[in-house]
Amino acid sequence: MTNLLEVLGSELPVLAAPMSGGPTTPALVLAATAAGSAGSLAAGYKSAADLAAQIGEVRAATDHYGVNLFSPNPEPVDRAAYAAYRELLLPLAASYGVDLPTTPVEDDDGWRDKVDVLVSVAPPVVSFTFGLPEPTAAAELRSAGCTLVQTVTSANEARQAVAARMDALIAQSPDAGGHWGTFTPARPPERLRLPELVRAVRAATDLPIMAVGGIGSSLFGRRAVLA
Fold this sequence. Notes:
By secondary structure, the chain is of the alpha/beta class. It has helices at residues 4-8, 26-34, 48-59, 79-95, 111-121, 135-143, 155-163, 194-204, and strands at 14-16, 40-42, 66-70, 125-129, 147-152, 168-172, 209-212, 222-226. Helix content is 37%, strand content 16%.
């Protein structure tokens, strides 16, 4: 059984979560490490080159850290709804000099390039949000020596993660700050509060669980590691 605290080198059962968009910096990850905890870098919304640079900064100071990736999970987009939403945004976009595409554009957040970066440096922990990683990428990361952790928002997603041979789970309640990483945004699962979600996931699997969402406050990025 994977011991997540041991893999991350944490003396504490509370970890710094990877918050995409800027809040989680190398300095924050290293501050968590200095406090006896650990943290993960957020790969979302940044280029593979920027991610590699941040990993290099963290690796220069510690061997214990994680990286979170957004798994590609395309969802069909209603063209009429998109066009109506685009019309609403056009005045704001024009004021910033931004061109809005006339049709939806699927963005995989540089998935393959980021996987290549992680395979080359082999972080101790790689976690996934919004969906399961495709099997080839998961196998490459596993072969590189990474512990693979899947964000789930329901017992059903937990069972899928087990079938995909994940090493551990992140049970994310809808109270988590930022986004809720369900596999099926068009058909969201039951909105369970964190204690109920952890119980449901635990009933579906005996994999180690990290719990996030409503720990202290929904505004702060914290993860509690549960047995």
